Amino acid sequence: MSRFKFSVGPWNVHEGEDAFGPAVRKPISFESKVKKFKEIGMDAIQFHDDDAVPAMNSLTEDQIRKEAAGVKEMLDSEGLSAEFVAPRLWMDPHTADGGFTSNSKEDREFAIWRGLRSVDIAKELGCQKIVLWLAREGTLCQESKDPVTSVKRLVEGINAILAYDPDIKVLIEPKPNEPIDRSICPTIGHVIGLSYLTSAPERVGGLIESAHVILAGLDPASEIGYALASGKLWGVHLNDQNGMKYDQDKSFGVENLRQAFNQVMVLKKHNYGSSGEYIGLDVKAMRTQKQEVCYRHIQNSLEIFKLLEKKVDTFDTAYRDVCIEKRDYEALEFYTINHLLKG
Fold first, then answer.
1. Given a cut of 90, is residue 233 above it in pLDDT?
2. Known catalytic residue at 76
3. Residue 48 annotated in active site
């Protein structure tokens, strides 16, 4: 039995619409998804702000809190927790040029408003983590935003969230590109550096997504290790990616099994989860999946993670140490692959 706790978001079961084609499946209600997630074996739900409170822009702050409280009752009835709330700052007309880094003062203020409302929602849901996926915090035209000013504006936005509630933690989820091609925080190293520019560095950390790391041409286990060594890994989104393309959010381990194995190994070896962190799955159903099997990618990812846990547990560390002592890395590499191939 896995010692980890697992989470997933409602967006991970979608209708299959993409930039090149329409939806291929029928929408599923949020309530139905929550029940199914519990059945699959999830422990917590990841939220965007408007997953919890749809049409929130037209509601008062009290109305937003009231709707979020209703969602908390639903979670409680299923025995589920909320992991985090993330302001969705990439779908609104106000954020076409970015949120915290927009060239429009009005739009920057809107982004901060959504950030503060996300804190309100998180408190009602019983969680203390705000995730910032900085989807449009960068530029498609280098000359359109001064890079120094952009960093300072981002820090100002984060500081506003930190000042609003002394218990809240901010997790930045880095991604090098898509939908923009020049991101302010493309890697976890940038995130950690930025955290020390804020007013409360001890409350700013990172959430690493496997696919985003691969898009940067880096290794997920190495990035996870860097964040763990820094004490800044407060969340993960495990999935997979077939090379440096668009963000695919494939099931965990289906493309890069050895990379997946090493992610599980570093997380387990260094006690990730001991402070209540979740193994988050950010995986999306293939567009080819039919309605009746549109949750399979989540089930597969969970099962692959647990199978790799067993591989970590049975990895011969004594033999590894001998190989290291002899500096026989060819032998170690072969042992690792052979270990993964064995039933």
1. yes
2. no
3. yes
